[in-house]
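Lecture notes, part 5. Sequence design as translation. It can be helpful to think of inverse folding as translation between two languages: the language of shapes and the language of residues. The source text, in structure tokens, appears below.
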């Protein structure tokens, strides 16, 4: 299971939200410096989310995103406001390893299919939900999509995706522990690589995620934000916890 340290961007700076609430923001300074800190700790991936773009669709932090992708020795996965083929191409053709589409999955699924064919294995889909409900949230987690997790997973089944990223919004930024039951359901229902996000607070939480299995398949990755930014867990501790036991 890969560790993906998370860096969320707002107004050009690194932040974390609590439960997706834009009114509850913690700030962590220079995002490039934070990315370099994680890579120096051994991270092979960095997960970057443009929160401003997620709300508005306008890529106001794209220069910051590309600066991170070009200047750190890690693969960079980027989400937030990627809703068109042009948005994805502007990232994937300029050094980003993988992009995450969320809103487009329910609003313009033809864009997702086209991008999966154009960039096989380099497209991820964000499945963001609250309170264990099946309905997905879109547009910066602020609107209900009217589409269920099961419907989306069925539609995604034939696509050449690099991952599906499952986010428990009500746990994100809380350090209350991951939604292992919800992640397990997606692992059982999808043949794509599954990445978990939201609530991880400790190496024990990562160990619990790494232990999840379905028909011999395990999670492909876990995204960790607040615990690493706050220093309650080091990158080295997190990577060790992601490794299979025994």
């Amino acid at each position: 299971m890969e560790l993906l340290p998370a860096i969320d961007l707002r107004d050009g700076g690194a932040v974390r939200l609590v439960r997706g609430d834009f009114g509850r923001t913690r700030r962590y300074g220079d995002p490039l410096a934070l990315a370099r800190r994680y890579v120096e700790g051994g991270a092979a991936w960095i997960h970057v989310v443009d929160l401003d773009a997620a709300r508005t669709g306008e890529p106001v932090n794209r220069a910051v995103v590309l600066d991170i992708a070009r200047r750190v020795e890690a693969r960079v996965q980027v989400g937030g406001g990627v809703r068109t083929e042009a948005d994805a191409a502007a990232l994937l053709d300029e050094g980003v390893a993988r992009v995450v589409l969320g809103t487009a999955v329910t609003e313009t699924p033809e864009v997702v299919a086209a991008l999966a064919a154009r960039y096989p294995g380099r497209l991820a889909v964000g499945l963001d939900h609250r309170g264990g409900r099946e309905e997905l949230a879109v547009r910066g987690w602020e609107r209900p999509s009217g589409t269920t997790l099961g419907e989306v997973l069925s539609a995604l089944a034939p696509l050449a995706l690099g991952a599906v990223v499952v986010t428990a919004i009500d746990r994100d930024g809380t350090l209350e522990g991951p939604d292992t039951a919800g992640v397990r359901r997606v692992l059982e229902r999808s043949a794509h690589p599954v990445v978990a996000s939201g609530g991880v607070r400790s190496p024990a939480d990562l160990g619990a995620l790494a232990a999840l299995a379905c028909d011999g398949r395990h999670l492909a990755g876990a995204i960790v934000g607040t615990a690493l930014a706050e220093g309650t867990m080091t990158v080295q501790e997190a990577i060790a916890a992601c490794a299979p036991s025994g």
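The translated text above is only one of many valid answers, since several sequences can fold into similar shapes. The two ends are 14 Å apart (CA to CA).
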